[in-house]
Amino acid sequence: MPSVSGRDRGALAIVLHTHMPYVEGFGTWPFGEEWLWEAIACCYLPLLALLDEGAPLTLSLTPVLCDQLEVEGIGERFAAFVRDVRRATHADDAAGLREGGHGRLAAELDRAAADYEHALERVQDLGGDLLGALAPHAQWTSAATHAVLPLLASEACLRLQLRTGIESHRRRFGDWGGGFWLPECGYEPALAHGLADAGVRAACVELTGREPLGSSAHLAPLRDESGVTLVPIDRATMSLVWSDGGYPAAGAYRDYHHHTVHHHNPWANSGEAYDHAAALALAREHAADFVARTRTRLADAQGSGAGALPGGGLVVCALDTELLGHWWYEGGEWLRAVVRECEEQGLALVRLDDALAEIEPLPASGRERALAWPPTTWGRAGDLSTWSGPAVADMAFAAREDELAVLAAGHAAGDAAVRELLALQASDWPFMVSREIAVPYARERFAGHRAALQAALHAGPRAGTSALGNLAADAHTATLLAA
User: Are residues 476 and 332 in the same domain?
Assistant: First the structure.
């Protein structure tokens, strides 16, 4: 692992936020469990191969994803998906394209079908235990069900989200260095002491709303009065990948939105038949460009006259793991090439925990200014509106209302009601509604968890939780009500 100690050229940390809404047992095609199987095949397994080769990446696994990867028999269910669904749908769509005279498109579907066969072989090699294979690389954890923490109504539920997530990480993986992914990068100063009390030592934050895009302030970790290190993510660097005009929009890449009957994608963004070799070559070019731009970003920040940056500056590029391989099909190859380009271009690529162990954070702003710091996220406009704006205000108010109802019930609520509350608080459902992604499914899930919560409150501690599967199995009423 490259050291940042004594460097004056700075370093890059790539943080991979790995998360999946709880879909196990809640629907199949086109919405539901298929999302998990797709992510395993296209994102998690390729990433595992890169991590096993020693790539110094920071892996954050959310507890709710781990809940699903921990389910007994997941390897067999993934195998059934490949054998019974993907083989047939690729073959059917390819046959239809050939009959229509689209031989190149059909050939691309035949090629892409091999992705799933290779994934099946890999899962079988792992004995079906993908979570166990990821365990040596698991570094950061998150809240129990990916709730936007500033939207919680009580300190008690903040404690429940934090402790349940952290305890499940320790149960699964043992050691934990204190790295905590704030769901949706949702932060406000009122969270600081709750985070510190739970053992959090570092968290990523989005500061673009407070500091101009491209400012060197985004390259300097801060330490707040509670002792938690707040690590700014660098939107200027991330936008090279994650923006409407980012790398994935290039014409040669596979078009995610243009699909066949069974949602396969044999077209390029240009509208032509997809050329896999050309797309991979472009991904490698974009990787070289990304590393070169990151080096320039660090050099410009150091020469801006804004003062010395700790460790020469730390660029934190935080990305959804599911972007790399699913939304952006070539993203996994791009990431692999970035790792190689960092070595070739002399850019230090470091795990975030290792970087923070060698960098002394700057003190955060004074108390008066910090208290005036509004909630920030990495969502649209950098605020809470994606999860509480007009399109989803009813969901935000309903979640808070039900949180207070569970608290009012106290120990009479029972563990079932607590788990349903956690399911209700997931950021996924309002996000999907706000972004107009599978809106009926998101609304159905939210309403279903509300109804189940009310039923559990009525039944009390005797209520069962079979419909929730393995979601937040470590959550208990005692944690919610602890002093």
Answer: no
Q: How, if at all, do strands 138-142 and 58-61 pair?
A: parallel
pLDDT score recorded for residue 55: 98
Do 313 and 456 share a domain, yes or no?
no
**CB-based contacts of 174-177 (< 8 A; 24+ apart in sequence):** 176/141, 177/139, 177/201, 177/353
Phi-psi region of 199 (alpha: psi -120 to 50; beta: other; left: phi over 0): left
For the chain, what is the domain count? 2
Chosen domain end from 323, 348, 380: 380
Can you give the pLDDT at residue 369? 47
pLDDT at 6: 43
Q: What is the per-residue pLDDT across 330-342, written as a single tens digit (0 to 9) for each?
A: 999 999 999 999 9
Split the chain (483 residues) into runs of 10 and give each run's mean pLDDT. 55 98 92 95 98 98 98 96 96 97 98 98 98 98 98 97 98 96 96 97 94 92 93 97 95 96 96 98 98 96 70 95 97 98 98 96 64 84 96 98 97 94 98 97 97 94 82 93 77
Same domain membership, residue 29 and residue 93: yes
C-alpha atoms less than 13 angstroms from C-alpha of 483 in its C-beta half-sphere: 0
- Structural domain containing residue 389: 384-481
- Find the CATH number of the domain harbouring 286: 3.20.110.10
Q: What is the pLDDT of residue 209?
A: 84
Scan for tokens 């879909």, then name that residue: 23
pLDDT in tens, 360-405: 999 876 543 444 678 999 999 999 999 999 999 999 999 999 999 9
As a three-state string, the secondary structure of 345-408 is: HCCEECCHHHHHHHCCCEECCCHHHHHCCCCECCCHHHCCHHHHCCCCHHHHHHHHHHHHHHHH
